[in-house]
Design a protein that fits this description.
- The chain has two domains: about 240 residues, 3-Layer(aba) Sandwich (Rossmann fold); about 120 residues, Beta Barrel (OB fold (Dihydrolipoamide Acetyltransferase, E2P)), CATH 2.40.50.140.
- The protein has a seven-stranded antiparallel sheet with strand order 12-16-22-23-15-14-13, with helices on one face. The chain has a six-stranded mixed sheet with strand order 7-8-9-3-10-11, with helices on both faces. It has a five-stranded antiparallel sheet with strand order 2-1-4-5-6, covered by helices on one side.
- Strand 8, helix 5 and strand 9 form a beta-alpha-beta unit.
- The N and C termini lie far apart (about 80 Å).
- By secondary structure, the protein is an alpha+beta fold.
- It has eight helices and 23 strands.
């Protein structure tokens, strides 16, 4: 049966209204374990992953290099097989015990990091490449117009800019009408301006096509900016999958706070109803149980406090134990990297707080700033520094 796309529209992508398309079932990963053939018995790429992609969602896979993000995409697409667990797409099992469907039968679109366009095919034939026999090519034309490629149909990939090639790769992935599109760091090869523009358009494009998306990135800002939920991985283990707001307000682990939120982890020690760190003292936030009355049970794991870059103050002091290691200009503020003994800390300071590299300083916590105690995840609040 021919699949025709909706009529072309002229509105900017940011103003698109989602099409009235039937919702499809989500992707579901159940207890996925994976390791590569040449790996040692205990070298798992993925360990017990449970993850669901809801209808129409854009979910980000966030984590450092080598944590298993791309492998997870390849398992869903069918380029890898799980050693344990199952993968379901649109309510049918595509991988699991006694069950395996090849990639071409899964109905999944894939956008690779290098786009993987066919250099001998022009833009039109690239966009139409994944269409099944008898499938209407008008959807490919609609997508090319939707993605701003109208008039470029006869150009070859080498005649397109990086941003145009990325749009063409997305059009090719969406043309067959998949329910799910997998994107492996699709913006990593683009310059900053194009990257920001295209990533802001992606949710609207997927919504307009009635597709869910799973996007791999190692950029926390990118994941939190455009995704409905973000799954944070480390060493093949899923630490948390939650909305950006929940990640910020309730990080499940210290790693989520440090990597996803770019926070600072301070070694801590509990003394009665107070938590002491090298930069200051904290107590339980209002409404929380007192630390002294069992609000935080003793833990065999070392205590750490997560503090945001905005919660640390810097005062130049030639006798200070900390020193400015580097800084970045962010337009409206500075992002400083400061070394204190073995700790590398991140601070966000106003533009008038301009210090050169190598400057010695004293650090302290801002009175009333929030923190989180790990591993208990108890919300904390900074106490005022004692008066001299």
């Amino acid at each position: 049966m021919a699949l025709a796309g909706p009529a072309p529209i002229a509105s900017p992508l940011t103003e698109l209204i989602p099409a009235e398309l039937p919702l499809r079932e989500h992707v579901q990963l159940k207890h996925i374990w994976h390791r590569y053939a040449n790996a040692a018995p205990d070298e798992w790429t993925l360990q017990g992953i449970d993850l669901a992609l809801g209808q129409g969602e854009l979910v980000g896979l966030l984590g450092p290099s080598g944590c298993g993000k791309t492998t997870l995409l390849r398992l869903i697409a069918g380029f890898e097989r799980p050693e344990r667990g199952s993968v379901s797409i649109d309510g049918r099992t595509v991988a699991g015990p006694g069950r395996w469907l090849p990639p071409e039968r899964r109905g999944v679109g894939m956008v690779f990091q290098d786009y993987a366009l066919f250099p001998h095919l022009d833009a039109w034939r690239n966009a139409c490449f994944g269409l099944r026999r008898g499938q209407d090519s008008s959807r490919a034309g609609w997508l090319l117009e939707l993605l701003g490629l109208k008039g470029l149909e006869r150009r070859y990939p080498h005649e397109l800019s990086g941003g145009q090639r990325q749009r063409l790769a997305l059009a090719r992935a969406l043309a067959p009408g998949p329910s799910v599109v997998l994107l492996d760091e699709p913006f990593s090869n683009l310059d900053v301006e194009v990257r920001l523009r295209l990533r802001s358009e992606l949710p609207a494009v997927l919504s307009r096509c009635g597709a869910s998306g799973l996007i791999v990135t190692h950029d926390p800002e990118e994941a939190l900016a455009i995704c409905d939920r973000v799954a944070v991985l480390r060493d093949g283990v899923l630490h948390q999958c939650a909305s950006p707001r929940e990640l910020v307000q309730q990080p499940a682990t210290a790693f989520v706070g440090r990597f996803a939120l770019q926070g600072n982890l301070l070694p801590a020690e509990r003394q009665g109803d107070r938590i002491h760190t090298a930069l200051g003292c904290l107590i339980a936030s209002p409404g929380e149980a007192s630390l002294a009355t069992g609000g935080s049970q003793p833990s065999p794991e070392p205590l750490e406090v997560l503090i945001s870059p905005e919660a640390i103050q810097l005062r130049p002091d030639p006798d200070g134990q900390a020193w400015v290691q580097g800084r970045e200009f962010l337009g409206r503020e500075w992002l400083y990297q400061v070394q204190l003994d073995h700790l590398k800390l991140r601070l966000r300071l106003p533009l008038d707080a301009e210090y050169n590299r190598g400057v010695r300083c004293q650090l302290s916590l801002r009175h009333g700033a929030p923190g989180v105690l790990f591993p208990s995840r108890m919300p904390l609040q900074v106490l005022a520094a004692p008066q001299p």
